[in-house]
Design a protein that fits this description.
Radius of gyration: 30 Å
Largest sheet: 6 strands, mixed
Number of strands: 21
Strand order of the largest sheet: 7-6-5-8-9-10
CATH architecture of the largest domain: 3-Layer(aba) Sandwich
CATH superfamily of the largest domain: NAD(P)-binding Rossmann-like Domain
Helix content: 40-55%
Shape: globular
Length: 755
Amino acid sequence: MPNRRKEALDYHTQGRPGKIEVVPTKPVMTARDLSLAYSPGVAEPCREIEKNPDDVFKYTARGNLVAVVSNGTAVLGLGDIGPLASKPVMEGKGVLFKRFAGIDVFDIEIDSKDPQEIIRFCEMLEPTVGGINLEDISAPDCFVIERTLKETMDIPVFHDDQHGTAIIAAAALINALSIIGKKIEEVKIVFSGAGASALSTADHFKRLGVAKNNILICDSKGVIHEGRTVGMNEYKEPFAVPTEARDLTEALAGADVFIGLSVKGAMTQDMVRSMAKDPVIFALANPDPEILPEDVHAVRDDAITATGRSDYPNQVNNVLGFPFIFRGALDVRARSINPEMMLAATHALAKLARQEVPDTVRGAYDGSEISFGREYLIPKPFDHRVLFHVAPAVAMAAIKSGVARIELDMDEYRDRLRASLGPGREVMRWMTNRARRKLARIVFPEGHNDMVIRAAVEMLGDGICQPVLLGRAERIAQKAKAMGISVDGVEIIYGAEMESKRHEYADTLFRRRARRGLTLAEAQWNLYKPIYFASSMVEAGDADAMIAGIEANYGEILRPMLQVVGPAEGVSKVAGLYMLAFPNRELVFFADTTVNIEPDAETLRDIALQTAAFVRELGIRPRIAMVTFSNFGSAPHEESDRVAKAVQLVREADPELEIDGEMQADTALDAVKLKSVYPFTNLQGPANVLVFSRLSAANSAYKLLHQLGGADLIGPILLGMAKPLHILERGCGLQDVVNLATVASVDWQAKNKQV
């Protein structure tokens, strides 16, 4: 489609051209930094590596670096397009490595069709990278290259077109056979296609226990059988078996399994009809399979199907394999990727698919029900659990088979992998899933703002909420058109023209604030202001939530919200919360970051309890540290005394809550220090909630950690309001608006028990 083509081209050109970049992992901000990063300091790790070559993994990025190598002779769906045209594919491979497993990639496109030149080039790369992923190299050259490199190189070499497909398809086969009750040693399997993927998959099936004579492979010349000479080579010869079948039709008669790695239309409905009871049909040609699932099910209601496509169940996608296989191999500094590691990956994937699927995974697939069965044989590509199931399995297999340079504590390793997923991303994915279950009607008083318009369009398209923009429809539509987007479907209302609603809302506001100095005339005038109108919509039930603040100071938005809606029952003071997501550690919550300048002990108690309730709503067990400049009385002062008193008040209100203080911020986050220096603490681990003694400290802390520490921020989240009203940080970005609207949706659901 022309629109999809433009969308793809725009995606690759927006911002910096391409999809990957090199980012430094160490600061180079001062002369001292420069002297350490380069001359003269860089000489020291050089000397250490010279003495002990394995120290290269300690002092450089080699242990997390993979070269994706291709000559562009067999690009999926495109064929021999050459190295230059294949570069976007290889960059894409790098994106997937990084996105799913945190692995850095150099994409390397080689202008040669000579296998020996490619072999020599890869061999010369060995000091640079920790592994090599061969990609989109035509057969039989890919076999020659991989076989040679595995013999000559001391790092993992993996041809994804071959072995990635084999691993994923094998996992799906294991589970399909378990569902229909057939034994792998007895099933008859027919392949359409005899390229690198097909031959490698067939070979991997034999490792699983499929009998050699039960595998029939068909290429363009027919069935590969004993005595055949036409179109044969050393790679096909091991699959020549005694059989009378000479073409695909004859081969499939009575077969249990079909594996398609060939071309569109290779399989017919008559072939499907001829197969055994409960046939397993994996039509994996891309982009168009050998036969469509609906054509299979039209003639066989007992068939189990899989394709390489995302618009059908059971997608056999190599992204389930290569990032995690390399992750496990790199982390034990494996010298190769061997059959034992491939089998481990296969069984780990098959086992994971049989486990209950959590909400965070369903959230990536519109919250749909996912459970093990005929339409769910293997995990989904966006199942984050694949990382900490497959990578440890591969790592353990490498250790047991003797190709690992180091050993790992597997429990610790799994925990490290879980932390690397980025808890902020996972929380937002869970929240998005929750938001989609019951859409909240969210009003945005700053409806003319470009960022708000973009966010509304995105949220409507993604099914996160029902956005309502306040403003003149003509003006908003014009601004949207200028940005190249459409606001079709986005609800737009203009409060100044809604006289009856304005009067209704003004009367309500007057009754609420009449004894606090507000006149009816002032209330009526206020309702011309979008912030008052939007807040009144939420108070009256005409909207479920409100998001504002992108064009105003925090206090300018908070005051009308408090006047119109106010705090929840029993809450005297509202508070602001930020979620901070760091690489390689769990989510941390900061409060109060926005509202209470110098809270007393009672207010600190309320902040802690409100924050704990919110954190629990996310399914996280809060461990709260009440933070100031003193550690458990080390610096007597009114402020430290106030914080210590707040701890006692919280314990009285919620004895089950993990909370301690007063303590310094570094103490709160250092589990070793907590247990060694302060063994009396009741925190069972490092704090994940920091409640600060004053606003200046909390506000400065989260901003510094964002700017200098690289923390991803989610917020600010307003705690304690009677209804979901949240305030954006002035000048924030698109994702900040979407994230806070998602939080508001979940907030509304929780307050109203909607899901």
